[in-house]
Amino acid sequence: MTLDASAIIFTATGFIFAPLLFGIINKTKAFVGGRTGAPFLQPYFDLIKLMQKGGVYSVTTGWIFTSAPAVVLASVGVVMLLVPLATSGAVFSFNGDIFLFAGLLAFARLAMILAAMDTGSAFEGMGASREAMISAISEPGLLLMWVALAVITGQFSVEGMLGGDLNFAWSSAAGPAIVLLLVALFLLMLAENARIPVDDPTTHLELTMVHEVMILDHSGPDLGFLTYAAALKLWIFAALLVNIVLSIYDGPLWATATIFGVGMVLTAIAVALVESTMARLRMIQVPELLTIAVGLSAMSAAIALGVR
Amino acid sequence: MLMGWLLGAIAIPAAGGLIALLLADRARASTLVGAGSAVAGSLVGLVTVAYALINNSDVEKRWPWEVPFGEFHFALDPLSSVFLLLVFGLGLLGAIYGAQYLFAFRSTKSLGVPWFFYNLLLASMAVVLIARNGMLFLTAWEIMAITSFFLVGFEHERAEVRRAARNYLVAMHVGTAFLLAFFAILAHETGTLDFNALATFNPGHVLASILFLLALVGFGTKAGLIPFHTWLPDADPAAPCHVSALMSAVLVKIGIYGLLRSTEFLGDPLEWWGVLLIAVGMTSGILGVLFALAQRDMKRMLAYSTIENVGIITMGIGIGVWGLSHDLSAVAFLGFTGALLHTVTHGLFKGLLFLGSGAVLHRTRLRSMDDLGGLLKTMPLTGIAFIVGGAAIAGVPLLSGFVSEFTLVTAALRSVDLPGPKVAPVLAIIPVLGLVGALALATFARAIGIAFLGSPRTPIAAEAQEVGVGLKVPMAILAVLTIIIGIVPVLAIQVVVPAATNLSGISTAAAAIETTALETLLWRVTIAALAVAGSVAVLLLLRSALLRGRSVRSALTWGCAYALPSPRMQYTSTSFAEPLIRLFKQLVRPRQRLSPPRGPFPVRAGFASDAPDLLTERLIRPGWLILLSLNARLRWLQQGSVNLYLLYPVIALAVLLVWRFGFAR
Do B552 and A123 make contact, defined as CB atoms within 8 angstroms? Predict the structure, then answer.
């Protein structure tokens, strides 16, 4: 683990620009829908506003509810440190950190679910139950993706799997396996970040929500923490996706960073286009979609095992 | 000298138990002697074993025993030590907890009896672990089964407890039958049952495979591996909670110990053994946690989750055996390390969870989590303990469950060293751990959320009080250990590394290199845990700084502006589990009875669901029915006539005499 200045700058950039992804998504959706839409920086205005507010707490809640937002943000924040920019390395990396990646996201999820259950609301219990169901498929899918990358690259860390060895792999027989992974990862990104077609972030009916209903009773800085954590999580998944595509390219750092930035914007636009053209799936069909992602990851791992 | 202390640690509870039995009429005295001797013996045992582990000293002692193949041959090695630490550690805490827990039964039951069996169970488990002779091993094994049978049947006035205890006794003996065959074949082939001699025995592939399968079924029954698990979901919940803790945390692990010990007698392992172990482990892991998710009874849920975790341990053993078969000693070493580590960490947090559920049961007498709710407010320490245990078993970082699973993932990733696609079953462990972990998270988030969070669903739950200090201290100790191992896992590694080194046959130098490499990774886990904990602290400070001086109000939970919510409107455990159970309904097959409302003015409507154990229903019960109908054909032999019964031995003797003197000559 060499503490690289470029890695630190990259991660800091992520912490700063993550909410912008929401801004781009919303603006694109508005554009497709023929509206002007909120400014690109609206997510920042929202966060600043939330941080300035007081709080309202349900009488049934206790310390679980009040500490959960901090746990969620801290866990997702540490995951941010594992994500590299192409070959320039991550702030924090070790062999097997893929399991820490999954574990910290699980920790955040546990805190969210417990906070939701602490309110004693049937709505939030329902959201928590759905979140648990979705993650039960997406978590093995995500780990399967890491296994496939481990086989393809022979590396055991997030940094290593997205680094130089992946660049070589594109031109090898494992190339098609990487393409399958990209599709799987895109689906997992939509599911893990509560986007259409798995969940609808803009719905107004409690019964149809997953992520939104779990944060129904949070307010003020707590809600700010959760919203910012959600932005970071979207950044993490989009960065993985862009990194895998970017690994084809082997050039100077400034060019890589520029392409990465463009890639992140394009990913946000892609998410927005999916949301503009599709409706949310019925809850009963969500597992089918996710199983496709798991199946693609499994196929990718099988190909990678077969050709080595 | 060391062996003397160890045998003393076994003799003290055994003698104390006997005295407690004699004092059976006097509740206070028998508790004092029974629990006191268990505590004293366990303390001596803990110190002795820790001393032996630190000083790396193996001891061996032999005394003659006038039984065919028998010998009092005891030894202490690193593998025994790991499990002995669990026996004495949980035995100690269980005794402290049980002293107060059982005392509530003093008006209706004699307390000397359970203490007698508890202490004898402790002693017999310790003897199993240090026995180095097949006869001695089987004898202690049998005492272990019988004493735990009586403990399971403690509340025998309840019909389901009697049924569970009976099932338990039968299952244990079916398992023992396979072990008898295992040792009989070994004795026949080698002429001895001395473990040292058996360790040099090198059976051919066919015989070794037969022996391996016998050991897998025999020890797997004790460990609760699917499909040999059917006793566990009934017996564990039936026992008093400190016994449930001991059974789930330690007793089933003795089966794991047996499996590991028996691999020493089988020569070089074959690849398919490892693959089979991984497959059995995955099956137990996934089915165990799915059935746990479907339960409403807290203790039954915990019992199924034990099956899941034994599955995870077995996957680790599978990696170890697979690594041995490919001469990948590093993979084998890491696999065994992970398996043993998970044995220890699961022992701690499952013990914790059973003691936590026992505390709830002690105060409320309610078994179904749907009758509870909001207990974190009324029983804060029990709540925190249960949350720590539940989060640990879900495998989240900062707690010990993550550490052992991380080690298993490291082992599985190392298998990539072997070129070609043969690594597929080992690599498959990683996504399966993800699936099992996510399902365990759902299971325990549900249990914590329904029982400890929200508002109380019944008046009894609302009035529950925190338990006394005798119940609190063991829970606190286990919770603190779970957190310490989670944050500084390097401390726990030292306990299991010597045993894993022996099992994997790795050279000491190579083991040292692998250990250092693993420790480096685990220090990174420590850094990550501290980073998360530190960030949480900073964010909480930031939050309170932001909220200072601002309006912070209390209000009702949002319910679409409905102002009179009742606790009954909260989500139930069945509703919470429904999406996942529906997703896996091919595996769980939940039973649902629905009587929908009828007519324009419906009077009544109902819905009930449960998840009966699939293998019990589809495999074991039909099997027993066939066996019973076969037995019925022999009923003419047993008509209750004493004359006839006297005739049978006469016939038998005559046949034997004729055979001995007529043909055998």
Answer: no
> B439: which chain A residues are within 8 Å (Cβ-Cβ)?
136
As a whole number, mean pLDDT of residues B91-104 equals: 94
Q: What is the pLDDT of chain B when averaged over all its residues? A: 93
Q: Is the dihedral of CA B353, B389, A229, A199 positive or negative?
A: negative
Q: Does some domain include residue B228?
A: no
Name the burial class of residue B662, with classes exposed (0-12), middle (13-18) and buried (19+) by CB atoms within 10 angstroms of its CB: exposed
pLDDT at A3 over 70: no
Mind telling me how many Å the CA of A29 is from chain B's nearest CA?
28
Please report the pLDDT score of residue B662 as a whole number.
Answer: 74
- Comparing CA positions, the residue from A237, A241, A236, A257 lying closest to residue A87 is A257
Judged against a pLDDT cut of 80, whether residue A126 lies above it is answered with yes
Q: CA quadruple B632, B637, B638, B640: dihedral positive or negative?
A: positive
Regarding whether B367 and B509 lie in a shared domain, the answer is: yes
Domain carrying residue B644 = 635-665
**A273 has a chain B CB within 8 A of its CB:** no
**Element housing B583 (H / E):** helix B573-583
**What tokens were used for B450?**
């329904």
Give the dihedral sign, CA A251/A254/A259/A260: positive
**Distance (Å, rounded) from C-alpha B508 to C-alpha B81?**
19
Distance CA B287, CA A105 (A): 24
Last residue of a domain, one of B554, B588, B622: B588
Which residue, among B646, B657, B7, B83, has the nearest Cα to B346 in the 3D structure? Answer: B83
Nearest residue, CB atoms, B441 vs list A106, A122, A154 = A106
B-interface mutation test, from A79, A133, A288, most B Cβ less than 10 A away: A133
* CB spacing of B583 vs A206 below 8 angstroms: no
What does the pLDDT look like over B291-341, one tens digit per residue? 999 999 999 999 999 999 999 999 999 999 999 999 999 999 999 999 999
Q: Are residues B652 and B579 in the same domain?
A: no
Token digits for B292?
A: 């746990």
Contact criterion met (CB < 8 Å) for B558 and A129: no
The total number of structural domains in chain B stands at: 2
Asked whether residue B512 is domain-assigned, the answer is: yes
pLDDT at B665 over 70: no
Q: What ipTM score was computed for the predicted complex, to two decimals?
A: 0.97
- Same-domain status, B491 and B431: yes
CA A21 to CA A139: how far, in whole Å? 23
Q: Measured between beta carbons, which residues in chain A are less than 8 angstroms from residue B396?
A: 103, 106-107, 110
Residues B584 and B663 in one domain: no
Contact residues on chain B for A307, CB-CB shorter than 8 A: none
Task: Kindly state the greatest CA–CA separation across chain B.
Answer: 104
Q: Is residue B616 part of a domain?
A: no
Using alpha carbons, select from A200, A235, A189, A249 the residue that is nearest to residue A43. A235
Q: Measured in whole angstroms, how far is the alpha carbon of residue A213 from the centre of its chain?
A: 19
Mean pLDDT within B635-644: 84
Q: What would the mean pLDDT of A136-148 be, rounded to a whole number?
A: 95
Closest CA to B398 of A82, A107, A81, A105: A107
Exposure string over B291-300, b if 16+ CB within 10 A, otherwise e:
bbbbbbbbbb
Q: For residue B60, what are the β-bridge partners?
A: B75
Extract the tokens encoding A45.
Answer: 């205005």
Residue B641 lies in a domain: yes
**Same structural domain for residues B363 and B491?**
yes
Confidence at residue B663, expressed as pLDDT on a 0 to 100 scale: 67
Which residues, other chains included, contact B444 with Cβ-Cβ below 8 Å and sequence gap of 6+?
B305, B390, B391, B393, B394
Does residue A101 sit at the B interface (CB-CB below 8 Å)?
Answer: no
Among candidates B520, B546, B565 on the partner chain, residue whose Cβ is nearest the Cβ of A51: B546
Distance in Å, alpha carbon of B392 to nearest chain A alpha carbon: 10
- Does A203 score more than 70 pLDDT? yes
